[in-house]
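Dear support,

I submitted the protein below through the web form. The confirmation email said the job was done, but the results page showed an empty box. After a refresh the structure appeared. I'm attaching both so you can tell me whether what I see now is the final result or a partial one.
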Amino acid sequence: MSHLALVQRVLPAYRASFFDALAKATFGGMSVFAGQPLPQEGIQMASSLQTARLTLGQNLHFLDPQSPFYACYQRGLLGWLEETDPAALILEANFRYLSSPAAIRWMHNRRRPVIGWGLGAPGQRGPLNHLRNIFLSQFDAMVAYSQRGAQEYISCGCPAKRVFVAPNAVTRTPTHPPPIRAERATPTPVVLFVGRIQARKRIPSLLKACSQLPEQLQPRLVIIGDGPELDNVKEHARIIYPEAEFPGAKHGAELAAYFSEADLFVLPGTGGLAVQEAMSYGLPVIVAQGDGTQNDLVRPENGWQVPAEDDFALLFAMQQALSDIPLLRKMGQESYRIVAEEINLERMVAVFQQAVQSTQT
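What the results page shows now:
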């Protein structure tokens, strides 16, 4: 595979390791083009890449990113394509990115492939659905985050043989063995949350669930992270579950110690980059259902997916989990196996390589 190019609306910090790994695996190297988010998005950006070559463009945002009518135009994209002259291009498969059609035409005029990448294409009604399907039809191959996303692309008319699944991974295959945990938990089991303290993480619901568990199951709750809602969450904890601990943001060996000590990882809201890392430490997980990216990661064998904003479902799952520690240990072993064998950064890179190669035959 010769030089590869990849375009992102923005470059979040958690994607840097994937782009560098893909660049390292690409014979001709890789260039990345990305712009800046709006301040209210609160995205932690990567300012540089170690292996891939990064060019920062200028994003023109139309409306708020949360609006269904949001659109973005990236200045300088065609000039960057002229400069990098890639053999293949990877684009986010989002028809609201108004500069993408011109980039696709630039590549196709030179008989070079364009690979789409995205969450999927949930059903819509009206003219937007038609515009999206026309946009998707221009890609030579598609990479979806999940099996559900892949099926949505196929339903939109993308040929099944050119649709690939690269489960959304942010961590490498674990090199450490899973911690050895006792068959029985300590008298007080440890429940762990790791992430940015934001409203969408729904940490007050986790506090409420802990307080409503039977007394003998009420855990030591450790909430690791920082963010705009930290003070509010601490106030909730003071009233609802004063036993909750807030060690602050932790990284590296410090964070690893918390993962190793925990019995269960819980993410009651959306997002959750730490889920895979928790699984790499042999932890069963409870997560809120979202855009489908968790479907391949969290299964009945290693955890629970609960409906978003359903506090009773969260409570029920936690009670199930903490009532059967031997089963919890088996589920943790399965978590470790999934990230060691199926869903990791190396596997994600391999699928992208496969998608690009499929367009060159």
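Response: this is the final, complete result; the empty box was a page-load delay. The chain has a mean pLDDT of 93.
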